[in-house]
Amino acid sequence: MNYYIRLSNVELLKIIEEKEKYQPEAIILVNEILTQRNLSSEDINQAKSEISLLLNKKRERQEKIDKTISRINLFIDDHFGLKEKSPVKILNLFCIVIFIYTLISGLFSVGSFAGYFNSKIEGYIAGSLLYILQLLIVFLLYKRSNWGWVCYNGFYVFLAVSGIASFILYFYYKSEFPFIRGNPYPSLVSSIFSTGIVLFLNTRKIVGQFSIQSQGRVTTIAVSLLSVFFIFFVSFL
Prior knowledge:
By secondary structure, this protein is mainly alpha-helical. It has 3 domains: 2-74, no CATH class; 84-140, no CATH class; 144-237. The chain is built from 10 helices and no strands. The protein has helices at residues 2-5, 9-17, 24-37, 41-79, 87-114, 120-142, 146-176, 185-201, 204-207, 214-236. Helix 7 (146-176) packs antiparallel against helix 8 (185-201). The chain starts with a helix and ends with a helix. The model has no long low-confidence stretch (mean pLDDT 80).
């Protein structure tokens, strides 16, 4: 009761205009308050004019919000919606997922990467540049740039092979050093995950979205394997 009494004429009349949002008891109470105030026709017309202006602004804001939401939904459906399950949309969805993953995980990896440097400042600079480079590669992949495919494919070939190498090296050194600590299975899981990404990127429907010939694909994988070759064999020497 006291709440409604403190409302202005405009606020009370606005409740009447939007009575579907309120309980019937509230509408009856508001009508009683307006009757007690004995408003003139001029007061009522002025209040209704203000209410109309407020409602129009509210309607315009809601229309803008609805249009924005509609555009976002249309963009998502056109680029990432999987109702059609087209190769283009599948790759787009893959890119947005790994972009978000890289965006989040990279923030935590920059600090740990900086630990390999003598100077923290240099380490953070190098880590930040590597972080930005990863996001750029994902963006190039999304834009169907050959460089995006080559870099991302090569990177995960490297991770797949190095993961297997780490897994094998663990048991190789375990026989010589029985008290060695650690868990080799995360490396194996990482290798399997990386292999899955490589296979996905090399499927005909996905790689067909790039202008990469079979020779370029073989070269990318070969260079990635050679980059691991030195690390793998040096570890045994």
